[in-house]
Specification:
The chain has 247 residues and is α+β, with helices and mostly antiparallel strands. It has 2 domains: 40 residues; 192 residues, Ribonuclease T2-like (Ribonuclease Rh, Chain A). Strands 1, 2, 3, 4 and 5 form a 5-stranded antiparallel sheet that branches. The chain starts with a helix and ends with a strand. It holds the Pfam family Ribonuclease_T2. One of its GO terms (biological process) is RNA catabolic process. Belongs to the RNase T2 family. This is Probable ribonuclease.
Length: 247
């Protein structure tokens, strides 16, 4: 009987040690994964222009954005306190769109997602933000109202980084118009910020992505980033210095 009690005590002791050390092992494994992600993931190449036919098709469609069709609508009174650069991992975004549309992609996304297009990280948009916003409709939107189409000549210049005429037009009207005097200055700024960042050449889990970004972008060390399933968010103050994104 005494021997059984001793064996039970030993079993309990080692079982407890195993359970206690499990989070440690998980943390060690996570560190190994992070280390591998940092060292094995190459830096993404710059986006390349697509074929002339794909570009022409993107510019030939009606890409205007209509404010009255937007579910959130206008908010021209919200102050601009900081900016959020939203970058999208295109393969994951396109997969999500195919899943929603039974394997197809909407025409407005054909330039980005159809055929042999091969985008990696792309610019979703540069969003002027209100620091006191409690919901998305508290941020500045459509500050200059419903605007005319930006010329195809200007749109074409920015398609390699923002792959969609409707995307560029919509982001300018919804967001850019709240902080910039012209579409071209807005597009140029988000492109400048995009190329100031080194980005990984593959999709990473959120924590791995944050660690990779901070390692390869010294200006982001100590800065809190944001992410969703397919996007990375980098925030800037009004002097265009990286800052913590709201948690």
């Amino acid at each position: 009987m005494a021997a059984l009690l001793i064996l039970a005590a030993i079993s309990y002791f080692f079982g407890s040690q195993t359970n206690t050390s499990k989070p440690v092992k998980q943390a060690q494994k996570q560190q190994q994964n992070d280390y591998a992600a940092e060292n094995d993931t190459p830096i993404a190449k710059a986006p390349q222009p697509q074929s002339a036919s794909a570009t022409q098709a993107a510019l030939s469609m009606n890409y205007d954005s209509k404010m009255y069709e937007d579910k959130i609508g206008q908010n021209k009174h919200a102050p601009v306190d900081y900016y959020m650069l939203a970058l999208s991992w295109s393969p994951a975004f396109c997969d999500s769109q195919r899943h929603k549309n039974q394997g197809d992609v909407p025409q407005r996304l054909a330039y980005q997602c159809a055929g042999s297009q091969n985008f990696g990280w792309v610019i979703h948009g540069l969003w002027p933000q209100n620091a006191k916003a409690r919901s998305v409709d508290d941020h500045p939107r459509y500050c200059q109202g419903d605007l005319p189409e930006v010329s195809a000549k200007i749109i074409e210049q920015y398609l390699p980084e923002s792959p969609g005429a409707a995307l560029l037009q919509g982001e300018w009207e919804k967001h850019g118009s709240c902080a910039f005097d012209s579409a071209e200055s807005y597009f140029a700024k988000q492109k400048e910020l995009f190329y100031s960042l080194k980005l990984p050449a593959k999709n990473l889990r959120k924590n791995d992505l944050f660690q990779w970004m901070r390692k390869h972008n010294p200006q982001l060390r100590g800065v809190y980033l944001g992410a969703s399933k397919t996007e990375l968010y980098v925030c800037y103050d009004k002097k265009w210095q990286p800052m913590d994104c709201p948690k």
